[in-house]
From TrEMBL:
Protein name according to UniProt: DNA polymerase I
Natural source organism: Thermodesulfatator autotrophicus
Pfam family, one: DNA_pol_A_exo1
Enzyme class: transferase
Source taxonomy: Bacteria, Pseudomonadati, Thermodesulfobacteriota, Thermodesulfobacteria, Thermodesulfobacteriales
This enzyme's EC code(s): 2.7.7.7
DNA sequence: TAAGTGGA
DNA sequence: TCCACTTA
């Protein structure tokens, strides 16, 4: 919203006083509403198309014209003097649609927030107000609008600017276009009439004839006076017969300039933009792009940030903090990995804008100025005091770091990162800095900025205390402000339940799992790596021999050259970005029918991937202190509510094929322990059965049938015992496709059949499972109406494209609408089970630890003696965690490694 | 379909 | 940044 004083449009006025820009508000509201295709709504389902279009127009005007005087005119409610005169005036106009009228208050608020005065007077239409301003304000006037009805107002002193067409219409233009003075357009319209506004006019006369007549006689009255002279019979008769109508019409279309408008120029003065208010409105309306363009206006003062260097002061602050409503807390460490770093300092904020930084382990010249480590216990006692509510941003990190110092955080009120995620799980990131920028309008100091004078390998511990203070205090401060932002919003929605009953309690469970880690057999992996290296070497030589030259097989570019240029193999398809020809699995599979090279490359790739991603990478990530692998479970990444795992990702460890199993064998329990794997059987399909209430599906699950076999029997129209393995495989793919929201196209590709055939399969499926079809139609309709979908527990996912005019985008949103409630509900179910299991484990004080979650599977490390007890607990909790219309079923397996525990 | 990782 | 590949 740069307020540069540029007048890019040359305004054709002799008068060089600043013009008044008079905006035809009502016409823009309608234009935005009807002109923008598709549908736009915010996360709550409020339609926003007109607000958006209007806002863009206003922005364009303010940017390009930078007006000193400006006003938006709106139609007032109720009848105008025109109705008194002619009761059918505008009788053909339908009333304002509901989904437009709800937007009007927002449009007005935004206008005010931009500092633009609003004019609205009972009994008058916007056009009349504009006419009054144009004729009675002695100033240059720019009417902002595009409506032809306003053309008669144009004069030496009045022009019209249409920001949408970017067209400036002045007197000269009108004369060129119509050949008459602007005011005469009234007479033209009176003769021609207007069916939209129900202005009668004279039958048989259109704009062309009207113009000709007015040009000839000068005015409507003169035309009527000379009606007798007109040669054409029909025209003459009509003019004489309908002279009265024509005169009434003139009264109707004549713009009334008598409206009691404010005459003081000060009323029209542009006021400053209220960025805070705009931000609030844009946030509510979900105008993300506009939000980003708002300047960061909020300046947070760092003046009240205190560096605490004195033990006595620590005690004082801790005592004060105990009485705080909520304490925002942030730990500074020297690594990103909470399983490795040490605590360098602690920041607190409980009375914003005050905040405190407690440095403990900084390095360098100032080290001796810091707090003695004993002071940390004072903070620890505060952190362990469950009566003091804490919030943090990504608090799991702090939880783990603290736990390594033997400190257990109690009284967790929540996590602002999680709050942001629940509020909109499709956001790209939930980083403190981005949220601060976008939601608070405050630009934070970046980590990069703070550490820029440091050498590459140096950590936060090397940051000078003053600088560290500002950075750390700002983190705690902004966290507090985000807490104030999100909490009321979460409480307002169904999200509060998901937050307090699922995601918040899960934080601690995940922290435990990450801290537990998992053991891998590094010696075994080393040996395996050597074996693969050998195989790769042989394959490599063979590939070079077949290709006739040496090249980098890992480079898809070089491989593409060999396959398509040198060997002239058919180019099957392009890469998704269309920048090159694809060399992916599917393509190589097909090409292997023509040549032996693709097969070899396929084999090489599988092995190379296995080696680099798993066999070689995993041992490097073993924590030297614990001797185990500690993944990080991210709770705020996926759009559906699933978890994700990284550093390393333990949710995509291979399972298929011989080599895959060999890698799973490297994951082993501690001595004296066994692995117990518990996975939900067909949880997605069971959730689908619950949602759809499909009788066949529900019955199949209650009878414990093999669901893919049942599906095969249904779609092939045979009995279950007649189903061949091939049929079952196809049915399985279809079930899979339904749950993952696969398109008919995707299904065709997966089954390697024609698209029509795939479509026929899907149709057959819907015939046999009509409830599923009903569910899909219903959920898509609901999504269209609300603009979002939700899980059984109220977790939401916005679907902005659900009404998009772009078919691809819309269909994608539709598949998402079908899939998210299913996958998200399944994710909620397993999260709930994890929370309960963790709780029972702690109550019973068992030695068993939950190690991993892989979407529908949990992996435990169980002392041999506890096996039977734990099996019982796990099954009972997982199967009983919610009651659906179908039973939940869990498969348990025990093993001395992860491969065994899968069978 | 979605997410993470490795290699160029 | 793009591509390919692993899991669910």
């Amino acid at each position: 919203m740069a307020q540069k004083n540029l007048f890019p449009k040359k305004l054709p006025f002799r008068d060089d006083r600043a013009p008044i820009f008079v905006i035809d508000g009502s016409s823009f509201v309608y234009r935005a509403y009807y002109a923008i295709r598709g549908h736009l709504s915010n996360r709550k389902g409020l339609p926003t198309k007109a607000v958006f279009g209007f806002t863009q127009m206003l922005l364009k005007l303010l940017r390009e014209m930078n007006p000193e005087y400006v006003v938006v005119c709106f139609d007032a409610k109720g009848l105008t003097f025109r109705h008194d005169m002619f009761k059918d005036y505008k009788a053909n106009r339908p009333p304002m649609p509901d989904d437009l009228s709800v937007q009007i208050p927002y449009i007005k608020e935004i206008t005010r927030a931009f500092g633009v005065p609003i004019l609205e007077i009972e009994g008058y239409e916007a056009d009349d107000l504009i006419a009054a301003i144009a004729s009675r304000m002695d100033r240059p006037i720019v009417i902002v609008g595009g409506d032809k009805d306003l053309f008669p107002l144009i004069s030496e002193r009045v022009v019209i600017w249409d920001p949408m067409k970017d067209e400036l219409i002045d007197k000269k233009k009108i004369k060129e276009r119509y050949g008459v003075e602007p005011q005469k357009l009234i007479d033209v319209r009176a003769l021609a009439g207007d069916s939209i506004d129900n202005v009668p006019g004279v039958p048989g006369i259109g704009e062309k004839t009207a113009l000709r007549l007015i040009k000839e006689y000068g005015s409507l009255e003169e035309v009527l006076n000379h009606a007798e002279e007109i040669k054409q019979k029909r025209l003459r008769e009509n003019l004489i017969k309908h002279a009265g109508d024509a005169l009434i019409s003139k009264k109707l279309v004549e713009l009334n300039d008598k409206a009691p408008i404010p005459l003081e120029i000060d009323f029209y003065r542009k006021r400053p933009v209220n960025t805070l208010k705009l931000r609030e409105l844009f946030l509510e309306l979900d105008f993300k792009k506009l939000l980003k363009e708002l300047p960061a206006t909020k300046t947070i003062s760092y003046e009240q940030y205190k560096l605490v260097l004195d033990f006595e002061k620590v005690k004082e602050i801790v005592e004060k903090a105990r009485k705080a409503k909520v304490l925002a807390l942030d730990l500074e460490s020297d690594t990103k990995d909470p399983m490795r770093g040490k605590i360098v300092g602690v920041s607190l904020c409980f009375e914003p804008p005050k905040a405190y930084y407690f440095p403990f382990r900084h390095e360098g010249l100032e080290a001796q100025k810091q707090l003695p480590w004993e002071a940390f216990s004072n903070l620890a006692s505060l952190i362990e005091d469950s009566s003091v509510k804490k919030v943090g941003h990504n608090i799991k990190y702090d939880l783990i770091l603290l736990a390594r110092y033997g400190v257990t955080l109690k009284g967790l009120e929540g996590d602002t990162m999680l709050a942001s995620y629940l509020f909109d799980p499709t956001r790209r990131t939930h980083g403190l800095d981005e949220l601060s920028e976008e939601l608070l309008g405050h630009t934070m100091i970046s980590y990069k900025e703070v550490t820029k004078e440091l050498a590459k390998e140096e950590s936060f511990a090397r940051v000078p205390l003053e600088k560290a203070k500002v950075y750390a205090c700002e983190d705690a401060h902004v966290t507090y402000l985000l807490y104030e932002y999100f909490w009321p919003r979460l409480k307002e929605e169904t999200l509060w339940k998901v937050f307090t009953e699922i995601d918040r309690p899960l934080i601690e469970v995940l922290a435990y799992m990450e801290m537990a880690g998992i053991k891998i057999d590094t010696a075994y992996l080393k040996e395996f790596s050597r074996e693969i290296a050998e195989k790769l070497k042989k394959l490599e030589e063979k590939i070079y021999a077949v290709a006739g030259e040496r090249f980098n097989i890992n480079s898809s570019k070089q491989l593409g050259y060999i396959l398509f240029e040198k060997l002239k193999l058919p180019k099957v398809k392009k890469t998704p970005k269309k920048t090159a020809f694809s060399t992916d699995n599917e393509v190589l599979e097909e090409l292997s029918l023509h040549h032996e090279l693709p097969r070899l490359v396929l084999e090489y790739r599988t092995l190379a991937k296995l080696k680099s991603t798993y066999v070689d990478a995993l041992p490097k990530m073993v924590n030297p202190e614990t001797g185990r692998l500690h993944t990080s479970f991210n709770q705020t990444v996926t759009a559906t509510g699933r978890l994700s795992s990284s550093d390393p990702n333990l949710q995509n460890i291979p399972v298929r094929g011989e080599e895959g199993l060999k890698i799973r064998q490297a994951f082993v329990p501690e001595k004296g322990f066994l692995f117990l794997s518990a996975d939900y059987s067909q949880i997605d399909l069971r959730v689908l059965a619950h949602y759809s209430e499909d009788e066949t599906l529900i019955k199949a699950f209650w009878q414990g049938e093999d669901i893919h076999r049942r599906t095969a029997a249904e779609i092939f129209g045979i009995s279950p015992d007649e189903v061949t393995p091939e049929m079952r495989r196809m049915a399985k793919t279809i079930n899979f496709g339904i749950v993952y929201g696969m398109s008919p196209y995707g299904l065709a590709k997966e089954l390697k059949i024609g698209r029509r055939e795939a479509k026929a399969f899907i149709e057959r499926y819907f015939e046999r499972y009509p409830g599923v079809k009903r569910y899909m139609e219903q959920i898509v309709a609901e999504a269209r109406e609300k603009g979002y979908v939700e899980t059984l527990f109220g977790r939401k996912r916005p679907l902005p494209d659900i009404n998009s005019p772009n078919r691809t985008a819309r269909e994608f949103a539709e598949r998402t609408a079908i899939n998210t409630p299913i996958q998200g509900t399944a994710a909620d179910i397993i999260k709930l089970a994890m929370i309960k299991i963790h709780q029972v484990f702690r109550e019973k004080g068992v030695g068993t630890r939950m190690l991993l979650q892989v979407h529908d599977e949990l992996l435990f490390e169980v002392p041999e003696k506890e096996i039977e007890e734990i099996k019982k607990i796990v099954r009972q909790i997982m199967e009983g965690v919610v009651e659906l219309k179908v039973p939940l079923k869990v498969n348990l397996a025990i093993g001395r490694n992860w491969a065994e525990a899968k069978a």
